[in-house]
Amino acid sequence: MKHFLSLSLILLLPAFSWANCILKNELRGQKHFICQAPGTSKAVHVLDLAGGFSETAYYHGFFLRNEIEHGVLKGVQVRTERAFSELSDKDRQQISLIKKCVINNYRQSVSDEFKTGLKNLYAGLKDAGSSTDWSSFEESNYMVEFSIFTDSMQRQMSENSRKGKMKIFASCAPYFVGNTLFKPFKKLAQSLRSIKMGCTGISASASSSRDGALIHGRNFDTGLLGFYEPNQVVVINRQKNGITSVGLGSAGLHYAGGISGFNNHGLTVSLHELQTEGAKIAYPEGSSDIAPYLLHSVIMNARSLDEAIQIIQTRKGFGAWTFFISDSKTDESASIELSGETVVVARRTQNKFMGQSNHFIASATSREGYEYSLNKTLETRARLKHVTRTMQEDWGRLDSQWVIDRLSGHYDELVGPRSFGRTTTKVYTAATHVMVPARQEWWMSVAETYPTNRSHFVGFRLDPIQGVKIVGVTKAQEDLTKQNWYDSMNFYVKAYLSNEEDRQSLSGIDRTLGLLENAIQKASEDQVYEFPYHFMWARIKVYRAAKAIMQGQRDTAYTDLLEAQAKLDEISSTLNNKLHPYEIFQIQLWKFRAETLKPQARQSRSLQGLTQITAQQNLKRLIQQYPTQSELYDLEWSLGESAQLYIVLDADIRLGTVE
Description:
Layout: E1 4-5, E2 8-9, E3 21-27, E4 30-36, E5 43-50, H1 53-63, H2 65-69, H3 72-85, H4 89-109, H5 112-127, H6 134-140, H7 143-168, H8 182-192, E6 201-204, E7 215-221, E8 232-238, E9 244-250, E10 260-263, E11 267-273, H9 291-301, H10 305-315, E12 320-327, E13 332-339, E14 342-350, E15 353-356, H11 363-366, H12 374-393, H13 400-407, E16 411-412, E17 416-417, E18 429-436, E19 441-445, E20 457-463, E21 467-474, E22 478-479, H14 483-501, H15 506-524, H16 531-550, H17 554-575, H18 581-597, H19 605-625, H20 630-639, H21 645-650
Parallel strand pairs: 5-8
Antiparallel strand pairs: 1-22, 2-21, 3-4, 4-5, 6-7, 6-15, 7-18, 8-9, 9-10, 10-11, 11-12, 12-13, 13-14, 16-17, 18-19, 19-20, 20-21
């Protein structure tokens, strides 16, 4: 019998404004509160502002200068600088010109309201003493769209370079030099994926809930982990049009409703990023907006689901997104998919429930959508299937705690319990939000530990008279017999962060391997053998060997390769038939690659031939099952190459999807 722990403490608060919150700053009637999370050392910033987006942005910058300088926009700058630093001087110069052109097109296309808001946010920063320069600050706000553009670019160039040139670069033709940019764009696209927004969403109708109130929840999954969660911000806008909106974001994202949010007319929103070949970079002047601000403007202006859909269909967008929206007044939810200028209401339900992940469902958008790897294809569909199945099974019993538990879960719909990979909790989940719009209530993880949704969740309620109140504290349900297993996940998240920080030096790689070893040891204390921990350790060992070879350390490399192969054999024998066919293929692929990296005199031709043939046979079956997954054809080509050193060095290390 399993033993579960679920902490839920509902606080009895004094009947006065801003209980548990302290007024930190006030300027011209605009207020900045610090709300302490009961029982933790963490706090949440709350900006209670009178006015719309652009007229209140100044106070966000002025009140939160220090937090912004070290927060998510800084993270975007760090990730972007690193991505460009990995290019050659020539490639970096050419792609920088294209980036300048694309962002100039974005700037011409977006609304004056958005541009004015950015200028006012920056003005507040400067008046508070910031030395941040305008150019990098402004550019950071467009980079999430540019990251989708780079993905689209490399995809189109790999599929049909002429089509890509004609479709994507019509506005930047002078900067485009053809196929010579395919490899650098591919490398750039891989690096810029770290600033993307993944996410799992849940909309449980009032009809399906325990207490008759619609619940909208989401995980915010992003490579900006480490920058986003330290300084979370709630932005309240009380407008003259009678709409009061609440956006849940981080310092520097004044359009916080572009992550998660709701308004006093019962609309609740969350944004989910995808990939598309249909990326667009230009619209008539002022007629569109970047997706996060577009969704924020929905809760600032819409009073119904139909109005929200109309705003999105009118404004359109640049990249690949799903706007996930619920309306508590009518007990409806909708998934509006955007692929460039293609906008489709993919799904709409009433008195039911809906899940959301990161792939297109409508036929019009699916034709242009894709995922960058088969494991990404598997994990986005597994997450959607999992939340849909469990909502159906628990119909009538859903509440805020249920949604917190589901979004904090570690169940892989394809293979069963697992730490990370195809689970709702991602290694890079930076925040979890659960909103109950009819009660103007929300719960948010305060991220005092990793994974972040293992931390405390604090419940808030917006009262029209008393302001914001903390109404409770809870944690996700856990199996008491597997506490060491849960603890092991902290090490895996830190291994992911270590790999993001330094994947080039041997010392950096060793730090990552050490953290994976800690995760393996901790999980073993509960007799859990975690495929992600063991496989990624072996995968990175092969990469370490390749780096050592480049540095002339061939004996060290040989030892690494032997250890990696031994680990891969151990995974196969331990987990046997508990793996997905793609995982079985990955094991064979990396055994083959490890063997080819050994000094020729020490190679086993029989082992190399056997692993190569086995991998090719497994891959052929995968291609038959997933014929549109382009990455599989790249892998098919790479398996035919006898020299694997540069293939290993160029392969993307994905701890998030375990590849």
